[in-house]
Write a structure and sequence with these properties.
Rossmann fold; Arc Repressor Mutant, subunit A; 3 domains; 5-stranded parallel sheet; 3-stranded antiparallel sheet; globular; nucleotide-binding; electron transfer activity; heme binding
Length: 402
């Protein structure tokens, strides 16, 4: 069939042509927006799940919902080597710019921007001052304020900054939403500050919420930072699609192009993809390109599957596997051999890995910790680890030993 008309989109964070299976999350967020707009207390939201389940796509869609209600919004992607101050300042700057045209007092906006600039440029007092050429300046055309959000303590400053931003939103009669992707990569201090700020906002009913997305161990990181975090946020686990939703993700875009699937073809596609949204798009795209005509058959899927698997092996699995050192690959290979042949996200006891490798558990800690930092594995429960990527164990078992 015509590859130009291929409707599927297996891209990182790229919205699929049919966002299937996420109606519950979208409806729940609509209620959150309405409650906050009416001054009702509401919790910030945390989306968790493995890679490839569509967390970033859902995060962007939730942001669109907020924008449609004239909220001020900003989005950042956390990085393990970056402080929260700069990206968060840029995100809040964008959010307030969206609210500014609706505010009756321009001086009030400038007052907040002065606080925001002070927060942005404040350096960590525990670190040596940056050289003049390395100092970063935000694009805010007002002088920095003093005495507000500029103490250098990220927790104190963030509470004050969010409080002032929420006050601006209250003046306008709307809200502010900050969206944070890869939230598990925030530093421990930044996570603690975010929890403290959200706690303060929840107590006052201020119209500012944080929507985070991260790997399955994000709730554990938040709770380790602040014990009340388990009650502070609304947690939503984003999982693979059920059969009905996976079929809809394939058939709805195809029908718009006047193409149909035979039932057995959909059986094959669900078996191959496991219902993971990224895989659904990858197998759907390859199948479309190989199918000679409509309806698409099971034979078409089987012919196209090797191409989809080859693309996943390079772009989805291989790029991650190559980031690991030989010692880290040995650790992951052992994990993979200890998992069942059909694996999803099962956890492996770290003691069992050490036993299988004939090593002391302490000697394997550097490899384990490095893999967690690289986002290849996570520890959802004490003494266990699991892959962050669906079907990663199957891929590793197919690779030759180093």
């Amino acid at each position: 069939m015509d590859p130009v008309r291929n409707p599927y989109a297996p891209g990182a964070g790229q919205r699929p042509p049919e966002l299937a299976g996420r109606d519950r999350e979208l409806q729940a967020f609509e209620i959150v927006l309405e409650r906050v707009s009416r001054g009702r207390p509401e919790r910030s939201l945390m989306l968790t799940g493995l890679r490839g389940v569509g967390k970033t796509v859902l995060l962007n869609t939730l942001r669109s919902q907020a924008i449609s209600r004239l909220w001020g919004t900003g989005k950042i992607e956390a990085r393990p080597d970056q402080s929260l101050r700069r990206p968060l300042s840029a995100a809040l700057h964008m959010a307030i710019r969206e609210l500014a045209p609706h505010h009756r007092a321009p001086d009030r906006i400038d007052e907040f921007l002065g606080v925001l600039k002070a927060f942005a440029v404040r350096e960590d007092p525990n670190k040596p001052p940056a050289k003049l050429r390395d100092r970063w300046q935000p694009g805010i055309d007002v002088p920095a304020s003093t005495g507000r959000a500029d103490s250098g303590d990220i927790e104190i400053d963030l509470v004050e900054l969010f409080t002032d931003a929420a006050s601006v939103a209250t003046d306008v009669g709307t809200g502010v939403a900050i969206f944070i992707d890869e939230m598990q990569d925030l530093s421990a201090d930044d996570i603690s500050a975010m929890c403290a700020a959200c706690h303060e906002l929840s107590q006052t009913g201020a119209p500012l919420i944080v929507v985070g997305a991260g790997l399955p161990h994000l709730p554990a990181l938040l709770t380790a930072s602040k014990s009340y975090s388990e009650r502070l946020f609304r947690y939503q686990r984003i999982d693979r699609l059920d059969r009905i939703a996976a079929d809809l993700a394939l058939t709805a875009p195809a029908l718009r192009e006047e193409v149909e699937y035979e039932p057995k073809a959909l059986d094959e596609l669900y078996e191959a993809s496991g219902g993971y949204p990224y895989f659904v798009q990858a197998y759907g795209k390859a199948t479309w390109d190989h199918a000679p005509r409509s309806p698409i058959t099971a034979a078409d899927v089987r012919v196209a599957a090797p191409e989809a698997e080859a693309e996943l092996a390079v772009g989805f699995f291989g790029s991650r596997y190559e980031r690991a050192t030989p010692a880290e690959r040995e650790y992951m290979r052992c994990m993979a051999t200890l998992l069942p042949a059909v694996d999803v996200s099962e956890a492996v006891p770290t003691a069992e890995i050490a036993r299988s490798l004939g090593r002391r558990p302490a000697s394997l800690s550097p490899a384990r910790d490095a893999l967690i930092k690289k986002g290849l594995i996570y520890s959802g429960e004490r003494g266990t680890v699991a892959f962050t990527v669906p079907h990663f164990a199957r891929y590793i078992r197919s690779q030759p030993a180093d």
